[in-house]
């Protein structure tokens, strides 16, 4: 999909002005963090589990090539095929080739963020193949032709009413009196509509929460069960995954699963956890005839050698979004691409470039709550700052800000000059404000005073008063 | 760092880093800090060669300018047993980020690390280092406490201000559900992205209103100015003060941004 990350400021304003979005975000901020906290409290060893999960991914990143090769070998032994794709275009073409070869007309899909990253739906459609999303959230945003607004809850930005309206618009067979005001009714309606697609689809595309090197399996967690229908019913199963999804063993996968569910939704385990290890073997009751893994790099291997390596530990749990004050204020679409929140603000500049995403690392208060909840202990604020460092080096920050900072540093490094300049200024402002102790407008602080009063300084600086006091006079 | 810190001197020499916002905006907080430190048995000095810790440049990705400012601060505070600041974010800058800032500078890295090891946020210094358990202060008010992000997450400042506030006569403390949620200040963020900043502040002010408190306390001037500014614009009359003012019993000066 096309990025609008460049227009973050406009996107954010639109989001802040939307009452339905704000209501949805308030609900999210109320639910997810509480559920995560309760789940963590229920499990005494949760913090150790985080350390263990982090260590697994660190180890993998140290030996990524080794584990990827092992994984490929195992997949091949199991009768499947691994396709290495450097970028989105290669991945799209690989998937289209498979679909064409088997004469696919309908493709069912179950949640894959990598599918969003490479915009596979649009590409298949352009080439005459019909992709059908089968997760409720993904299905809704597909009908609305919107990108996901959250990595695990893609339609979280919508109210029930908006979803019902979307259904009425596209499910034209619906009787107008048919009630759609309950989540269950919507789910039933989506299921009824999707059933024939499950049965006729030629290819099923899924993502992967993990790839297990030891067994050549991919792991998928869902709460709706549709993933199982997506990868067992069609003749061909294509897994799209990025290279950092690998873990060494089945045991490692279970460790990561334990922190994933708790961090994501506050569940102890997700309702469905599927392990797929290749095509149907003789005697298997079901399963596809072909099993393909499209392994996407898209700039990730390059990150290994940089200060952004840690983001490759991300398991896409969404906890950093759920606890982020910026995400809470503007939602996922403001970030302008498929990822959002703190992990998006770190990842998007890496995948799309700093020219496209310069706002994202800057639009953060660096409050650090994301890092405190990230199951993989990814130092997100440190990496946001590292992007700012790059942006500054690449001169992608405004010239006024650059000159301002340099001038400020020049003065701040010279305490006597600093005091000669600041003391009269705060004295004047203190006098000007008078008894109100605040300003409604300040010409050089319009960004502040448009929505907030600006507190007036007391008048004299501390250093002035201290120097004039007995204490100050007697000290060097 | 050594395995166990050297024993604290009986009457340590403390360098007060006033911080730029307290220096310029609210000197009362500086005097409150001096009083609290002296009451806790410290000899307090205020080195005149101090200005700012360098955060505005550091958080803008401009480490060269941050280092320029930081070097002056390091030199000014080296002679002290402790450096104390009435701000979690400035103390966090020195404790956590100075060592990062100078990591590749063989001359300054040891000096930055040494300073980091002896730098503390004011309230946590009083409680954790000086063992303070109560204050002799009085204020009839219903207060709620905002945990500023850097103090909370970089330095673990959370129970210390609450423990001391519990001993202020007449003061009732009510916890906000969003006490640990960012207020949207974020240094230059609040003027670079004013709309988003305000959106975040609104969550904070709504939470404050929900507690029914008439006084908002916190340990960082930046957050307090932001919260006070938004409260005033919304017509709220809740007073906003730095926690040190209340603990030091110096509440004669009008609240931040008036009432
Ligand atoms: S960065 Fe951490 S918290 Fe955010 S999605 Fe990834 S693993 Fe989860």
Main sheet: strands, sense, barrel of chain A: 6 strands, parallel
Strand segment count of chain B: 8
Please give the oligomerization state of what you see: heterodimer
Helix-strand pattern of chain B: EHHEHHEHHEHEHHEHHEHEH
Radius of gyration of chain B: 18 Å
Unique ligands: iron/sulfur cluster
Across the major sheet of chain B, the strand order is 2-1-3-4
Percent in strands of chain A: 5-15%
Summed over residues and divided by their number, the pLDDT of chain A gives a mean of: 92
Structural class of chain A: alpha/beta
Portion of residues within helices of chain B: 40-55%
User: What overall geometry of chain B do the principal axes of the alpha carbons give?
Assistant: globular
- The count of DSSP E runs of length 2 or more, i.e. the number of strands of chain A, is 12
Question: How far from one another are the termini of chain B?
Answer: 46 Å
Tell me, briefly, the overall form of chain A: globular
Largest interface, per-chain counts? A-B, 71 and 73 residues
* Contiguous uncertain segments of 5+ residues of chain B: none
Mean pLDDT of chain B: 95
Helix content of chain A: 40-55%
Summarize the biggest pleated sheet of chain B: 4 strands, parallel
Radius of gyration from the alpha-carbon trace of chain A, in angstroms: 26 Å
Q: How would you sum up this structure, described in words?
A:
The complex is a heterodimer of chains A (476) and B (259). Chain A is of the alpha/beta class and 476 residues long. Chain A is built from 25 helices and twelve strands. Chain A has a six-stranded parallel β-sheet, sandwiched between helices. The longest helix of chain A is centred in the N-terminal third of the chain and has 24 residues, at 19-42. Helices cover 53% and strands 11% of the residues of chain A. The radius of gyration of chain A is 26 Å and the shape is globular. In chain A, helix 3 packs across helix 12 (250-264), helix 9 crosses helix 10 (183-200) and helix 16 runs parallel beside helix 20 (380-393). Chain B is an alpha/beta fold and 259 residues long. In chain B, 48% of the residues lie in helices and 14% in strands. In chain B, helix 5 (88-101) packs across helix 8 (149-155). The termini of chain B are far apart. At the A-B interface, helix 1, helix 15, helix 19, helix 20 and helix 21 of A face helix 1, helix 2, helix 3, helix 4 and helix 8 of B. Bound molecules: iron/sulfur cluster (SF4). Residues 263, 314-320, 343, 374-376, 378 of chain A line the site of iron/sulfur cluster.
